[in-house]
């Protein structure tokens, strides 16, 4: 089996289940939308090391602008156990702004966050992202418990 069939990087849009009150004490009426980047280890017995994950902007990888997606709540590197998954997120506004300001629009008019994430594994192999379909608009985030404080400012 190839590495691409055993390690999946998928992107979907969703929001966190509403936290009762924001840091300012105000209730949020419209939840902030995020792109969630999910890395799945489909191996039955082999753990993988996720060394880095980033959003890239150009066709030629060696000249690409890159936006690192590691955040305080999800530090890297991380070991993803067999048959497990891990997830990180970025606000839709931040990701969309990065893509639109760093793409050569003539060459990639339909550039999308969904297909512009790369995961680098511990063996220096890169896995490109695809759209993750049929995902609920909110739910659990794989990769460990989240504290409210870790969501602030992300």
Q: How would you describe what is shown here?
A:
- By secondary structure, this protein is mainly β.
- It has one domain (3-14, 30-132): Immunoglobulin-like (Sandwich), CATH 2.60.40.
- The protein contains 3 helices and 9 strands, in the order αββββββαβββα.
- It has helices spanning 3-6, 92-102, 148-151; strands spanning 7-14, 34-41, 48-56, 66-68, 78-80, 84-91, 117-121, 126-128, 130-131.
- The strands form 2 sheets. Strands 3, 4, 5, 7 and 8 form a 5-stranded antiparallel sheet that branches. Strands 6-2-1-9 form a 4-stranded mixed sheet.
- The longest helix is centred in the middle third of the chain and has 11 residues, at 92-102.
- The N and C termini lie far apart (36 Å).
- The model has no long low-confidence stretch (mean pLDDT 80).
Question: What's the quick description here?
Answer:
The chain is built from three helices and nine strands.
């Amino acid at each position: 089996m190839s590495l691409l069939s055993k390690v999946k990087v998928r992107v979907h849009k969703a929001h966190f289940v509403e936290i009762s009150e924001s840091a300012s004490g105000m209730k949020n009426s419209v939840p902030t939308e995020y792109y969630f980047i999910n890395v799945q280890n489909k191996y039955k017995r082999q753990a993988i090391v996720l060394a880095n994950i980033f959003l890239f902007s150009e066709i030629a990888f060696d000249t690409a602008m890159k936006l690192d997606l590691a955040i305080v709540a999800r530090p890297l590197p991380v070991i993803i156990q067999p048959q497990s998954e891990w997830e990180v997120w970025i606000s839709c506004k931040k990701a969309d702004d990065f893509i639109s300001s760093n793409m050569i629009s003539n060459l990639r008019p339909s550039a999308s966050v969904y297909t512009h994430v790369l995961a680098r594994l511990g063996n220096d192999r890169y896995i490109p992202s695809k759209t993750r379909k049929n995902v609920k608009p909110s739910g659990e985030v794989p990769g460990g418990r989240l504290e409210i404080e870790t969501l602030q400012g992300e």
